[in-house]
Amino acid sequence: MAPAIANGGDSGLVFNIQRFSVHDGPGIRTTVFLKGCPLRCLWCSNPESQDSHPVLMVRDINCKGCRACLPACPRGAIAFGAAGRTIDRSNCDNCLQCVAACLYDSLQRCGSRLTVQAVVAEVLQDRLFYKNSGGGVTLSGGEPLMQSRFAAAVMAACKQEGLHTALETSGQAPWEEMERVLAWADVILFDIKQLDAALHQRTTGVGNATILSNLRRAATVRPVWLRVPLIAGFNDAADHIRSVALLGKEIGAQKISLLPYHEGGRSKQNSLGRPYDFQEGKAPDEERLKLLKGLIEETGLPASIGS
Amino acid sequence: MESQTLSPEKLRKKVVSRGIRNIKRGTVDDDSKRGMFRPEIRLDLQRSRLMTESFKQTDGQPMVLRRARALANVLNKMGIFIREYERVVGYQTADPNGIYHPIDQNWKSPRRLANSEAGKSLLDAAGRKELDELCEYWKGKSMSDRHQAALPESLKPYWTYEGTFLWSQLSELGIPNYEKLFKVGLNGLIAEARQRIAEIGTTIPVDYVEQRNFLEAVIISLEAVIAFAGRYAALAQKTAAAETNAGRKRILEEIALTCGRVPAHPPQTFVEAIQFFYFIHLVRYLEYSTLGIGVRLDHLFGPYYENDLKAGRITREETLGILQLLWIKLNELGLVYSPTVSSVYGGVASLQAVTIGGTDENGKDVTNDLTYLTLEAAKSLKLIEPSIVLRIHEGTPEPVYAKAVEVIKTGIGYPSLFNDEALLPLYARWGVPADEARNYAVTGCVYIEIPGKNMMRRSCGYFVLPKCLWWALHQGVDPRTQAQHGARTPDPAGFRGWEDVLAAYAQQVTFFTTKIEQLERINLELYTEFCPRPFYSAVMDGCIETGKEARKWVYPSMVHHFLQVIGGTNVADAITAIRKVVFEDQRVTLPELIAIMDRNWEGREEIRQACLNAPKFGNDDDYADAIAAEVQARGEAAMEAVKDRYGYSHRGDGSAVSATYGLAQDTPATPDGRVDGEPFCDSTLAPAPGKDKKGPTAVLKSVSKISTVQTFNHLLNQKFLPRFLEEDLKPAFMGYLKTWKEMNIPHIQFNIVDRQTLIAAKAQPEKYSDLIVRVAGFSAYFVDLSAGLQDHIIARTEQNLT
Ligand code: SF4
Ligand code: SF4
What is the ipTM of this complex? Predict the structure, then answer.
């Protein structure tokens, strides 16, 4: 097994730097996705972010069956049969030696260790766009607070460059870790999945006590946007959304975003060789979304769908 | 005046698209079984008939007078009509669904088309018979015949399209000086011509006879145009007399009055100005087959509108209605293209664009209410033409951006944005004085012109840059025939680095540009002698004053001829791949790579992948972008090294039309990993499809590294999901546009449509007959494109949102 990431400040494990993000805070942004997450949400749309080490992502659709990867695997995890190239995940230790052998992008690395300077250099590339659109940088994940020192260092460096900074978090972290990053964030995009603790535990693997207490504390020091990933039948009940809105109102959130569930996680789970056991996942229909948006707006809070 | 206006939906149904299907792809068939035109479209023979009739009568007279008399014969005798909803009148054919062809320029391809599967609905049996008879007269006399007969042996292999360039016979562009026309009317021009005749009658210049003939031809043409308008006035009068509906009667009476005044006299009202313009535009199309418009609509017509408004003669709504009627008129223009030329014009009708925004010659913003009304007219009608060019500059007001975004969002592919900040320095390098440059307009695609100053700016043809690279890698020798077709550049086995490849490429570009120029030189000499344009010369600056027809001289600061270059990104990526794979990683030698490409990568897929995985333009990666900047600048310099008959340089232009698809057929595999015949990158700046992995901001950054001033007026097409233009993301989109401007990128346009819609439209064309896509510098009905071109458009990267 690759070693778990340490929470150092100089470098961190990043699985994507997405330029031209327009749904993760105001304006045109660059979102830096950090690896590692304490939650295991059934509907996770970025399952490749969960592990705190680099993982092999497989895109079967790109595979040409050229067999170049076969000799590259030291563990004999790769095989060829009637179903084409298969990978025995129980035998694969994510050493990633096969990735370089594949010319067709069928075997990909997810997660690279990058220095703060490297990340900031990439972020600064789109500076002009941030200036003209009121955008900036967003740290997301995974859960960026799992690498809070690195996250804080990246945020601080961006702040020094005069960029607008946003932290996107599940809220599941010791308060000290959160505080460390908040110091440099202009806005927090705070995910609220479910107010019912038991249901939260059942679908994400953790309860919501820490999350809610962090939310209340964070809101006293920084502007907060609440984000609710919406899954039909799970958290889209009118009462639930009204409660979220009231909570938002109470803590002084600036707005609430409803993010309808999408199937993106399914294919990614497949690429990771994991079963996707959230068959019941469905987005609320348009009408319901409108209704929920209206419910939030009734409390006087602005609401948006999708961003 | 109260009018009976039709709703935009109803108006749209009045016009059948003249957009053509690209029935060929270079030298091979491409979906010709679906026909070149929509089935309702007819080839109208009246122009050919009347022209031929006149030419038979004027045999032996000076050509300039014969052309003027032929035009007059057409204008005097052609069938005219006024449709029941019209307020702006004039048709180029006797049939509302008609198109014409310039038999005097080329009779072979229309005849071939009319007798083929792809064009069989154009004519009935009697029509085909008449066409045959008419063609009989033009044998040996059409411009195409004359050109072919005049070609020396050395040029024949280059006249025939073989994949490197498609020399084009058709278009001369240019924009009449409407500002002047509106001041003096055609009567004013006639008076000028008479005065000039009187003057030379005393000074007797050495070319006295020639000048006199030309000036008389001018008078004949202009008087014919006035008489043509008079015929409409009479018809309107007659129809009005019989009309029982009071509202319609008033409109008909207005038409009668208007056509009685313009274009003879200066227009006094908005409607008169529009009608004046339309007569000139129409006759320009009837005199000579042409393309484009080019008027600065808000700047030119705004004052007439505002005067009418002040005087209470017109309302804002009514003005919108008149613009909509004009839009319908512009969609009635179209002509027949040859099957080979259709490869580059997939979906095109007449490539007409109008320009709005920008500054006056003193640098003052020209935005007025008509700027917004123009955008509104386009939005309400959603037609493929006219495309709208919006000039953006430092002082462009915020609401103009907002209105533009509103129209872009509909998915019609325009307005396309032109950046004054990037283009004005380019015109300065071209030698255009600053005040004239600030008055620039665009006729179609990204054809840039200075109104009144461009006599006969020509697109000399489509120039396939990757094929030049291919020749450079083969020392100009075609491996299949062993013929030395290109320049004898050095043996690639001796190349020491990518710079040597670039040098050989530049040499090939100059070599083929020279061939194009030689073809063009002979052609222009023949056109000057056999196809003068007295009417068009008269509406341009300087011709009447000097007594010279447009082709005999050029305005000192005119923006000159250009080549429509395609595949620049492929050349850049190819040279980058050679640098990486051959010279740095040393996976193969250059001769090995060439041999592998000559077998279309067969058996060496790993090398193709290595080439595909080399850095690519469009990712804000300096490794690839620096080479692209160099390739583009050197390519332009290589073209500019070749001078035309007037001493002006050939230049590139970004109007790739559909050639990136159509003309890619005849270029074998290239080192960027492209396989034999695969389409080239879209436009002149777009990254390779699917290779722009870092999204739209990185694309703009890469593009901004290509110097406009060192190259030319590029075209950049970007595709977004409709979602990105919705209200909540507007600040992001506006920020994107402003950054585009600050980065000095000359042009940008948008395709706002999702993939699913395109796929559905391809499968069920009947349900999507109105779906418009931006192909290159023009918009087209998706269903009018060949299946292959549809796939090419579907494959272009859709800028994803996260
Ligand atoms: S990552 Fe690749 S090489 Fe390593 S064990 Fe897994 S399959 Fe084998
Ligand atoms: S190297 Fe890549 S393309 Fe070839 S068989 Fe392995 S996974 Fe498939």
Answer: 0.90
